[in-house]
Amino acid sequence: TRQEKAEKTGKVSFFHFKTLTYDLDYLAANIQERIIKPYERSLSDLLNPPDADKLPLTTRAQLHSEGHQRLLPPFLVILFALIGLSALLPQELNRRGRQKRILTAIGLAIGIHIGLIFLINMNGRWSLTIPLAYLTTLLVGVVALIILEHQSIRAWWHQRSLGKIEKVTYQ
What is the Cα–Cα distance from 33 to 169, expressed in whole angstroms? Predict the structure, then answer.
């Protein structure tokens, strides 16, 4: 049912329809296959797309990049914790001298995160950027662990030299 009111006469008219028919055949001819966007896919579909033969090379690179952007954050959590620990633990307990180390650790973590996102998004141009992102994560983690280990050895040696740790003699 539809009603209309004429402006000049003010007369209201009603239209009643028993059936409404649409011809949708012309719309069905224009249907194109939709490419599923990267954020709509699962991780296995991103790394090994089932429709890889139909996709252009740039789209496959974007899917691969999106998959690695989902894989890298758990490693980054551990990496950022190691950066924070290596910045704060190897120092004396002094409240005044911590701001520089804290800001350095924050700046380093932000810089690493931006650099890794840049490397992963450059996957379409250079295929070595994703392994380079993982290698960077691994190297920064190893350096942070070396800093922590070096500090613990230095602290142990300092305590030993002060006589707080007994020297062990073997027979």
Answer: 78
